[in-house]
Specification:
The protein is mainly β and 365 residues long. Helices cover 10% and strands 38% of the residues.
């Protein structure tokens, strides 16, 4: 079997074989070009804090010893800002030896400032499902900026499945950029590798050149109802950030921002990529709850400008920050798929396929 992250057709095979299953029946819409959407079950618990199982320990062991109360998500239920919840996922995995998984928040989840991490029995690492794992999966959910209304069936995170995950090094990334083009400026011209590729990462910069450069979350008495797509008023939850006349955008510690990259990124059909924080040697800057970019992101028809901007979820943790246009802000790590993906991002009406700047989640009108 080929090494790398599994594309849509191989994910279908895992569902057919029962390696990935759901108590509600896994719907075909949960399968993305190179990832699987995971969904909430009704069983949930409010916890006193974050905690991981030790080897040989189940998540249910932690719940038995620590849970403050049980929450029933069989009906829409309000989950309070700042609280920690453990929610069982409807999906289970029965992976073969050598096959493992990694999870991350979906784009819409990060854009409403929900922190999510997956726990697996006996695994003392968040978001890592070890090779050969069989059992339940649990989601740690922490609403940061807003109360939310959640119910069973909501999808907040996703998993990639892989055999010997194959992340490109600097030389391999340079060769791919030279052959395919991975990063483009606002005119659609390819950005030279010398300006964009460092330490095996494609580095992207902040865009402060548009009239609206981003949004900052504000306190709201209203909850975000996860099932209500396109029904929330943005000004109940966010304040737009206009282009700073001084050229300096002030980011306040522990505030939540939505920004965008200046460049457009492109993901060829036989690759996927993950957004990672920019190297901390450039300053303390932690961002990006949502990280997966499926094959086909930013791939345009021949003759059209290539690449699509990335949207960032940013929360400065240690200090206030001053951001300028063109300042490095995030990086992309590319990885090989185990085979070419025939179902590319945007081919099935994905929510963010045509974004061209800072954009709120699909929950907002």
């Amino acid at each position: 079997m080929n090494r790398g992250t599994l594309p849509y057709t191989e994910l279908e095979q895992l569902v057919t074989s029962g390696a990935i299953s759901s108590e509600a029946g896994l719907d075909s819409s949960q399968l993305q070009p190179s990832s699987v959407d995971l969904t909430l079950a009704a069983e949930a618990y409010r916890m006193p804090g974050s905690v991981l199982p030790l080897p040989g320990e189940t998540v249910r062991d932690l719940i038995a010893g620590l849970a403050l109360d049980q929450v029933d998500l069989s009906q829409p239920t309000c989950l309070a800002r700042g609280q920690v919840y453990l929610i069982r996922l409807r999906e289970q995995m029965r992976l073969e030896p050598g096959v493992e998984a990694y999870t991350n928040s979906k784009s819409s989840t990060g854009r409403v400032d929900l922190a999510t991490r997956v726990l697996a029995d006996g695994s003392p690492r968040y978001d890592r499902i070890p090779a050969g794992y069989t059992g339940e999966l649990w989601l740690e959910l922490i609403p940061r900026s807003f109360d939310i209304v959640a119910s069973a069936g909501d999808s907040l995170n996703q998993a990639i499945i892989f055999r010997n995950r194959s992340v490109l090094n600097q030389a391999e990334l340079r060769a791919l950029h030279d052959a395919e083009g991975l990063l483009f400026d606002s005119k659609g011209d390819r950005i030279p590798a010398e300006r964009s590729l460092f330490d095996g990462r494609v580095v992207m910069t902040a865009n402060l050149s548009t009239d609206i450069v981003g949004y900052v979350a504000k306190r709201s008495h209203r909850p975000v109802v996860l099932a209500n797509i396109g029904q929330h008023k943005s000004d109940d939850f966010f304040t737009p950030l206009t282009r700073p006349s001084s050229g300096y955008l002030y980011l306040q510690k522990d505030s939540f921002y939505i920004l965008a990259t200046h460049e457009g990124v492109r993901v060829p059909a036989d690759y996927a990529c993950e957004m990672v924080p920019y190297d901390a040697t450039a300053g303390e800057f932690r961002a990006h709850y949502a990280g997966f970019f499926d094959p086909g992101w930013g791939v345009r028809p021949a003759g059209e400008p290539q690449g699509a901007r990335a949207v960032l979820e940013v929360r400065p943790h240690e200090d206030d920050l001053i951001l300028r246009h063109g300042q490095p802000i995030c990086a992309m790590a590319y990885e090989r798929l185990s085979s070419n993906c025939a179902r590319l991002y945007g081919s099935t009406g994905n929510n963010y396929a045509n974004q061209d700047g800072p954009r709120l989640s699909k929950h907002f009108a």
